[in-house]
Amino acid sequence: MASFHAEASESSNVDYTQRAQWLRAAVLGANDGLVSVASLMMGVGAVKPDAKAMLIAGFAGMVAGACSMAIGEFVSVYTQYDIQKAQLKRDRKQKNGMQPSHSAEEEEKLPNPLQAALASAIAFTVGAVIPLLSAVFIRDHKVRLGVVAAVASLTLVVFGGVGAVLGRTPVGKSAARVVVGGWMAMGITFGLTKLLGSKGL
Question: Which InterPro entries match (predicted)?
């Protein structure tokens, strides 16, 4: 019984700020993938009723976005890695008054650029594939647009809720923020593309 209470106490004292880095990358990556590809498909669908055009645009957006996320995360985290490694060298040199060396524990604490890049690419792809799958078997143009918007909205609620639960933040507020942002992106993309299409551009 005592060990149960000890485990419960440990669980309640978890430092959720330690999850910030991977949680941010996963949630932002999945949200970006979902919103970017859904918006792109809605924009193409605003001017072209052909399902093939929407799917090709969505697939291209998924590949390009995943590559962009991976490269951006790799460069960003590698910069952080270099800064932290240089700081470790300075700190150890000051403490020991000799040529700096690193312990295995200190090296493990350094960020991993490749891991971060891969995680971002996978998260983006997971989000991006959802609107693609939702539209692939629907022939009717208007129904396809509605399904993409509806599926994207429901998935954004899930992503917002999961991020809030893992980070121990208010679920309703987090989900609402994510959904409204997604609606704005899809609506603006659809509206502007429709406007340009009507002008013959």
Answer: Ccc1_fam (IPR008217)
Alpha-carbon span 55 to 187, nearest angstrom: 19
CA pair distance 127, 145, nearest whole angstrom: 17
C-alpha torsion angle, residues 80, 85, 88, 90 (rounded to 10): -100
* Rounded Cα distance, 86 and 2, in Å: 45
Helix, strand, coil share (%) of the chain residues, nearest 5: 85, 0, 15
What residues have CB less than 8 Å from 198, skipping those under 6 apart? none
pTM of the model: 0.76
Per-block average pLDDT, block size 10, for the chain (201 residues)? Answer: 46 50 72 94 92 94 94 88 81 66 60 84 94 91 94 92 78 88 94 85 58
148 vs 36: CA distance, rounded Å: 12
Quick one: how far is CA 111 from the chain centroid?
18
Query: Radius of gyration over alpha carbons of the chain, in Å?
Result: 22
